[in-house]
Specification:
The chain folds into three domains: 71 residues, no CATH class; 117 residues, Aspartate Aminotransferase, domain 1, CATH 3.90.1150; 248 residues, Aspartate Aminotransferase, domain 2 (3-Layer(aba) Sandwich). The chain has 19 helices and 17 strands. Helix 3 crosses helix 4, helix 6 packs antiparallel against helix 14 and helix 17 crosses helix 19.
């Protein structure tokens, strides 16, 4: 009888392993079927080890491997992480984090029943679209408002309602594609309208729009460039001129703003970001924007504008397919309340990050470095730039102080260290530039500082 055969005979059965106290603990935590599957996987791996010259592992080791397998398998696929990239509205990392008030509102509404579609005063069926209507009207100056599940849906729904089977005129310079392959021409095609391009990529004048109008024209569409800039020899037509032309011809104007900025971005050292208030004041009939970009709330598509146009949109059959859910509504209302109370820059996370003082960011980095050096990890400061991201304020940056770990100062490759940080129970997402691992404190919540320091020390070992 071979050594391999002897070692295989030493392996306990599944039933034997399930009798151990450690197995009972796992069963209570994960359920018997899952533990049985994990134990079988552990035994299968042990057989592979033995057949390649290894010894039969003890039962404690087999159960420990089963527990590790279960812990990894049962870990949530969607989980929180620490964003140290310096990109404030990071689409890959979930865009805008919610305020504490928004989180509490979601929990309260989701934990039981709510008046989602119920009129408390009348005691009869109501509409989910009334909950944030008045707030949006107050904050933007709109006659009416309605909300969908994201801005792409808002655009699709609006075009399907207002221009299906008819022509929509748009500048060639605004036929954009944004993250995830979202292309304005494709959405227009799905809505059933006919795209009419005017002007050139870099210059479109009012007479270009006027020359394209026909009896089949339904509306003029403008689209925020989102995540790119056209500079140099450029010219665009003001929205006010478009609305004047359209209304003289009995047509509508729709403005896709994208970012949904309700504040004056210049006060934070940034260039001007167009607001829904300005679009409506310029005469736009319908304005669409996102909830999870510069608004700083949950994913949603907000539609504000003239009462007649919004009422038509609300009645479209597609509205039910793209309607907003109760948890998103709760978070959106709480976010809008911050604007109503004049506290957006202190309560909404993305605006706290945008308005963070450079000296405070530098102070936090010096604290990180001191703590790391006490444990033998050498780091330094580096001047850097944070970006707004998320298709908002393209090209705009904010000065920051970075924590820098040079490749020559650590014992493992930077790519390996970045990977270790990503694969932690609480992942830390960083960036690498010129043989340096960089972390930006602007997008790290201050209560996460200790976790970042701990993560760097663990990953560097």
């Amino acid at each position: 009888m071979t050594i391999e055969h002897n070692q295989l005979r030493l392996l306990p059965s599944v039933d034997d392993l399930l009798q151990f106290p450690a197995a009972h603990t796992l069963i209570v935590r994960f359920s018997r079927p899952l533990v049985v599957r994990a134990v079988r996987a552990s035994l299968a791996q042990a057989r592979v080890t033995i057949r390649t010259g290894g010894l039969c592992p003890p039962a404690e080791t087999l159960l420990a491997e089963a527990q590790a397998h279960l812990s990894q398998e049962q870990q949530a696929q969607l989980r929180p992480l620490i964003n140290a990239t310096g990109v404030i509205i990071n689409t890959n990392l979930g865009r805008a984090p919610l305020s504490q008030a928004a989180l509490q509102a979601v929990q309260q509404v989701a934990s039981g029943y709510s008046n989602l579609e119920y009129e408390l005063a009348e005691g009869e069926r109501g509409s989910r679209h009334t909950h944030v209507r008045a707030l949006l009207q107050e904050l933007t100056g709109a006659e009416a408002a309605i909300v969908t599940n994201n801005n792409a849906a808002a655009i699709l729904l609006s075009l399907s309602t207002l221009a299906q089977g008819r022509e929509v005129v748009i500048s060639r310079g605004q036929l954009v594609e944004i993250g995830g392959g979202f292309r304005v021409p494709d959405v227009m095609l799905q809505s059933g309208c006919q795209l009419i391009e005017v002007g050139t990529t870099n210059r479109t004048r009012i007479h270009d729009y006027a020359a394209a109008l026909s009896e089949r024209t339904a509306l003029l569409l403008t689209v925020h460039p989102s995540n790119f800039l056209i500079t140099g020899f450029t010219e665009s037509t003001p929205l006010s001129a478009l609305t004047q032309l359209a209304h003289e011809r009995g047509l509508l104007v729709m403005d896709d703003l994208g970012s949904g900025c309700l504040l004056n971005s210049e006060q934070y050292g940034l260039s001007h970001e167009p607001t829904p208030q300005e679009s409506l004041a310029a005469g736009a009939d319908v304005v669409c924007f996102s909830g999870d970009k510069l608004l700083g709330g949950p994913q949603a598509g907000l539609i504000v504008g003239k009462a007649e146009s919004v009422a038509r949109i609300a009645k479209h059959p597609l509205m039910r397919a793209v309607r907003i859910d109760k948890m998103t509504l709760a978070a959106l209302e709480a976010t809008l309340r911050h604007y109503q109370r004049g506290e957006a820059n202190t309560h909404i996370p993305i605006w706290r990050m945008i308005s963070a003082r450079p000296e405070r960011l530098a102070s936090r980095i010096h604290t990180w470095i001191t703590r790391l050096q006490e444990q033998g990890l050498v780091a330094r400061t580096q001047r850097g730039e944070s970006t707004v991201g998320g298709g908002s304020l393209p090209g705009e940056t904010l000065p920051t102080t970075l924590l820098a770990l040079d490749a020559a100062r650590i014992s493992i490759p930077l790519t390996e260290m970045a990977k270790r940080l990503r694969l932690r129970h609480t992942p830390v997402i960083t960036r690498i530039s010129r043989d340096t691992l960089l972390l930006d404190p602007r997008t790290v919540f201050e209560e996460q500082d200790e976790e970042v320091i701990r993560a760097l020390l663990e990953a560097s070992q």
